# Entry
Amino acid sequence: MKMQVAVIGAGASGLAAARHLLESPRGHSVTVFERGDQLGGTWVFTEKTGLDVDGRPVHSSMYRSLETNLPKEVMAFPDYPFPEGEQSYLPAGDVLKYLNAYADHFGLRHCIKFRQHVERVQPRGSVWEVSTTNVDTAEVTTYQFDSVMVCSGHYWKEKRPQLRGSREFRGRQSHAHNYRRPDAYRGRRVLLIGSGPSGMDLALEVASVAQQVILSHHLDKSIGHLFPSNVIEKPDVTSITETGANFRDGTFCEVDDICYCTGYSYSFPFLTPDCGVQVEADEVHPLLMHVVSVERPTLAFIGLPFIVCPFALFDLQSRFFVAVLDGRCSLPDTDTLRRDAEAERRRRREEGIRPHYLGREQVPYLNRLADLAGAQRLPPVVFKLFETVAFRLYEDLANYRRHNFRIVDNETFQEIA
Ligand code: FAD
# Structure
């Protein structure tokens, strides 16, 4: 049956969703709602921080100097390579160009409604009511759809640890979400908390202008050698004072500014409580394969997992969900789905795996999605290259992006010196 499907967000995941819905032999009717005025999501750089012109939180967390942390050979959608070129790690602007080219190639623009902020998604019997606000005119419109694909991203809602004393601190406190360039830290003593990809990039960049950077992290190895000498490593912060921070090793450092590079929470404020999913800071559940709502299987989430090849994941998750909508992939009854979802949650908890973390599990996971969707599996070379590069930033932060790669065949890649 042909369905009316709403896609929320025109970032990379929303584009993949729209493409596969449009390519379905059922000829689904697709409406992509995007609150911004262009496609690309995270990859649309803005100098703005805090609230956007429409009074809503700025979405993108891109900083001015951002280059990809994965080579283009791994980042690409499976059947749509980046333009030829020796350079493997690309500036953010090139990714935005690529996503625009993808949208044009697959004829997606006509179904995107820009400047439409989705306010509410609510089930009404067997359909979904979706209310949007026109960001320019404040006009509210309510639509009905048979299915909703949530593609609104999960790198915008700041997650900060509750640190004792943080309210007393007299200096500036901000989150990596609001970091654009290092200038504001010139000559200052800056505490950066967190050593994920953003924390690492920021520490290196801020160190180029700051008097001192104190990088607090709980990696199990030292990473101080990756930085210039004005970066010192500290373990976790135990408390903040008016002028600085205490650390788990019993030391204290005076600092002028604190920047939290402590990640993001899942947040989908438009979902009403009766949507049948629970959204917690670190988990959305119950879901089948991190995608399909167990309680209402016409609702899907694209892009929740992390430590993955994101665009390939968006592609295969979308293919899988469209196969479900098309009836090419049939789901078991709700009780079985509930049991399976709960068993998977339990397994992850018992093995100490965070809810949507994939890492090595992305290989069987993506293969399974491909099989269920009747799609081609990713060639093993993509996983091999991912394995090779995924954690290189912790080996040679300053230079790892200068490495270039060439795919030789489905199994083999070459590193070009
Ligand atoms: P987004 O890109 O966040 O897009 C979501 C879209 O939904 C946005 O356009 C937003 O405006 C819209 N939206 C949100 N809420 C609403 C609403 N209520 N109504 C209407 N529209 C809405 N991945 C890589 O593969 N390589 C990298 O090098 C890399 N570097 C990264 C660096 C940073 C700093 C960050 C934050 C992420 C990085 N990522 C990287 C991950 C990146 O987020 C994904 O690759 C991908 O771009 C996410 O796409 P998305 O479509 O799921 O979400």
In short: Residues 176 and 293 are 31 Å apart (CA to CA).
